[in-house]
Amino acid sequence: MPTSQLRSASVGIVVAGTILSVSALNAQEVPNEPAATEIGETPAGARDVLLEVFINDASMKMIGSFKQQPDGSLAATADELRQVGIKPSADASDDALVDLNDLADLSYRVDEEAQRLYVTTTNEGRAPRMIDVKQKQKNEVPEAQSSYGGVLNYSLFASSNTLFDDHVNVFQGVSGSFDARFFSPYGTLSQSFLAGYSNGELDGITRLNTTWSYSDPKSLMTYRMGDFTTGGLSWTRPVYFGGIQAQRNFSLRSDLVTEPLPAFEGTAAVPSTLEIYSQNVRTYSGDVPAGPFQVTNLPAFAGSGEARVVLRDSLGRETTQTLPFYSSNLLLREGLIDFSVEAGVPRRNFGIESDDYDDRIMGVATARYGLTDWLTLESHFEGGEDLLNGGIGAAFPLGPWGVASVAAAGSTSDRGSGALFNASLEVSNGDWSIYARMQRAFDNYDDIASVTAEPASTNSGDLPMFSAGVPRALDQVTLSVPAPLDLSSLNFSYTRLENADGEKSQIAGLSYSQTFKRATFYASAFTDLEDRDSFGIFAGVSIPLGDNVSANTGVESGPDGFNVVADISKSEQQENGSIGWRARTSEGKVSNREAAISYRTPFGRFEGGVQQYDSDFRATAQMDGAVAIAGGDVFATNRIDDAFAVVDVGTPEVEVQQQNRPVGKTNRSGRILVPNLNSYEPNTVSIDPKNLPVDADVPATKEVVVPADRSGVVVKFGVSDAPQAALVTIKDQNGTLLQAGLSGNLQGSSDEFVIGYDGQAYIRGLGARNAIDVTLDDGSKCHAEFSYKPQPGKQVVINDVKCL
Fold first, then answer.
1. Sequence-ordered list of residues with C-beta below 8 angstroms from that of 724, at least 6 positions apart, any chain
2. What are the φ and ψ backbone dihedral angles of 248, each rounded to 5 degrees?
3. What residue ranges define each of the domains in the chain, with the CATH number in brackets?
4. Mean pLDDT of the chain
5. Does the model's pTM come out above 0.85?
6. pLDDT tens, 130-162?
7. What pLDDT, on a 0 to 100 scale, did the predictor assign at position 466?
8. What are phi and psi of 451, to 5 degrees?
9. Is 392 exposed, middle or buried (0-12, 13-18, 19+ CB in 10 A)?
């Protein structure tokens, strides 16, 4: 690596092979580095020299490490040459020694007195300056943490029978869904279940899932034991398993980008300032030296977009180039591997039966590998008793306009053998976009879902029966085209499905929307081309009325007739005390009217409503909330679907904020629970100190926490009502205020304090008599002593303390 890098100025470029020329400017001269000292001769007679590098008479603002041979020629490692802007031979490894005389189209001279190397070469002989935009944006993410504790989420729903029928009981019953989990630094154990109560007795409990999981952000791995969903690809069918799982989990690193990001190359005629705009948002600004450069890891949104590259010289002249790009999660960056491996028994009738597992042990393995930025390979294997299934696939970009994928698989089971083929296409250009997918299954193609599903022998009632087999044919097309008016969109969709039993359906849909200044008009229609009685049309207008209130009205038509629909609603917000409500009516062959109101409290959310369907009237009530245990306290709160924090301020009635949004005030114990934190992502929790006593000690007002998987963390701000602290003004022996920036220590304490403006220092941990030592600029120390007396409710100020 170069031993020193100087500050550079910037200008001009080549982008995507197009040269954008700018008048050459003279590079500003910079002070010479001190002459390099010779490290000494090597056994071969060469000596190490440090030289400031100039290419085509422009300083690279870098000093390179070279080996000078006895004949005066220079050599350096290939990596060192790249760093200073010289391109070595293509086959040279990073640590290989390259003689500059062996490089084509390159000449050089050494100014030994000035310790400079002057190189003359073409653009092809120069190594581009690498600009990693994502690297510049990266922040240090704190390590994920978890306390010990638990959470029980609950959702209770009660409804009545017909309200005005004297022959039935009004109360119908209560049903509830529950999700309990226990977390620790060793993982999270979760248990969810359903329960109901009616006719004076418990209806029973249906277990949903029991799972222990542990995630390791360093290895990007998540391990599960219990109930889980297997991994899969766009052309496979994941199933529910009871067993063990090891899975790559890129979401454990919020700063990690797995998709290939846009990159481009350019050449600056003179030092330049480079700015990059992605979707009209500036994502990079920095200096580039004269010569070629390469920008990598340009932040991009999913789908199609444009990047605008602007080069600006010292006179303010600009050169601009617009580059289209396409980003898709079907692609992996070069060298990345994503995989999931499972072993266990398939689970059936989830949500209906508590313990319905197949008795055959199955295994599943899925992998994706970024062979290059333009080719991602896929593979999938699953099998066990009576089944072997495997396939491979690939995804690749279609220039800056889209991405495509293809896959093929084969299987053998006790029913025979078969094959599957799948292909998909995503293309976007301007306001046009299309998604298309085609899948075909041949002969007796099977997977785990089809061989372990229980056969349905009868059709009970009017419920439709769905085939568990692999569909024989599946075609999907979604097309979005620009509409003739601004702020409007027109979308078409088509799906053709032939299931394993040969039943066919063809669903076609069309939708249109138009946004006006104060309203949005929308219309949609769909039909099953295989069933003329299956169709629907809906059109309406939505009008925002302000204060989170909106009104909608429209008409709908279907096999059951024609209806006029109208509703007005106020959306409920996340803040405590927020109220939401809605009223809706549908008038047609059968009237359907309903009204509901909801209210959010610090300990739960409540909703009540009434409904009239024809001549039948019913009432409903719902309560959602959670009980959390962490930090030695029990909290009643709203649902916690991910992580949370217990904020310990130490003082009651202090406002706490999450991501600068108020979430409430601390209780009598000086604590509050903050829900809705994101696991493995930085979450900012802060306090507003305006309600704190004037003499309170506030070590910090903001903390950044990264909770582990669905866990809770305790955040202590350490505010003290009796801090035993004072604002001390310190002078030297001549009576001059000590300068800002000096540091000192209170004897008997490990805490350090810093001198601020006007010689003032805030010193904690004081007693009746105190001694301090302050380190001066020359390294010497001065000593001072003073007395302290607390004054409750006031900031103690001690003036004129002399440090001798």
1. 764, 765, 766, 767, 788, 790
2. -70, 135
3. 32-127 (3.10.20.410), 145-179+572-721 (2.60.40.2610), 264-327 (2.60.40.3110), 726-802 (2.60.40.2070)
4. 83
5. no
6. 776 665 444 555 688 889 999 999 999 998 877
7. 65
8. -85, -20
9. middle
